[in-house]
Amino acid sequence: MKTEEEKKHIEKKIFDTARQNLQTTGADRPEVKWLQERMACIQRRYKLKSKIQVDRLLCERMLGREPRTGTESLKIRYWRTGRYTPVNREQCLRLAGALELTEEEKRFLIQGYFDRSETVYDTPEKWNSAPCIEKCSLLQKLEERYLAGIPRELLEELHIRPEERGKYFRHIYFTDAFHYVTVPGERSIRTLRKHITSTRYDSELRRQMRLQGEIPRRTMLRHLIILNGPAICLESVNEQLDLLGYLPLDREHTMTGGERLDALVIQLLESYREIYDPLCPGDSHAWLQKMCRRLDAFFAEQGKPRMRFMHFKALEL
After folding, report:
1. Regions of the chain short of the pLDDT cut 50
2. Is 179 in the same domain as 43?
3. One domain for residues 146 and 108
4. Its domain of life (predicted)?
C-alpha cells in the first residue's frame, strides 16, 4: 500500500507527461519523419531534382494520370510536412503503392502513421472471415470477464438481475464509462445514472465490439481500459492491441495531430502497477478511474479534446 506522499509523487509524474502534450504538432511526429525518408528514397531512386517533383510523381501515381493543376499535388506536400494526413484508408493505401512500400512498411504506414488498425472489416464477407472471428472472440471473452466482475450492489442499483447481466452489457458499460470522465456541470455521476438512457449508444457499441467498419485506435484503447477492469496492465493491453491489428502502445508513437497519447497511457498504466494492491483491487481501480477523470478535466480545460482518451460523444447530454 502506497502512502499519500508516494501517491502524490506518482500522480505528479503522470501530469508531467500530460503537460508535455500541450505544444505538440503534426510536424513533430516521428511518423512524419519516417514518411519523409520514404519520399527521399523515391527521389534518389528516380533521380528527381526536387521535392516538388517527388510530390508530382506520387500524385500522378495515386491519380493514375498527370496532375492537371499544381494544387492537385499540394496534398502530398501537406502530408510530407505533417500539416495534414490522408483523409481515409483508401487514400493511405494509394500513397503506399505510390511509394513502392514493402508489406512491412505498408503496415507501419497504416498502423503508425495513419494510426488505424491494419485491417478494416467493412463487409459481411469480411465479418465472417477467420481473422475477424478470432478477434471478435477476444472481445467477447473480455466482455464476459468484465460483466462477471461487476459488483452485485451495482447491478442492484441499476435494477439488473445478476443472472441477466449479459443482456445489459451496453447499459453497464455506458454507466461505468462515467467513472473515467469529467461530468459536466454540477451534476454527480449518480444523478446522471438516473436520467441517462444508453439506447443511442447501443448500435455503435455493438458494431465496434463486432469490429464492423473503421474503429479508431483511441476508441479501441478506451474499450480495453474499461473491459480489463482492475486487472488491467500494460502487457495485456499491448497484447490485445496487437491481436486486434493495432500498433501496441509505444512511447514514441504519436496520433495524427502529433499528440503523444501513448506515452501518457504507458505512464498511467505503469503508475497503476505501482499503486495496485491485490488485497484491495477495488480501491486500486478507483484510483485509476480518478486519475482518468483528472486527466480528462485537464485536457478539457486545455482545449485538447483528442487527448480525452476516455471521453466519447454519447456521454454528452
Report:
1. 186, 188, 191, 194-196, 198
2. no
3. no
4. Bacteria
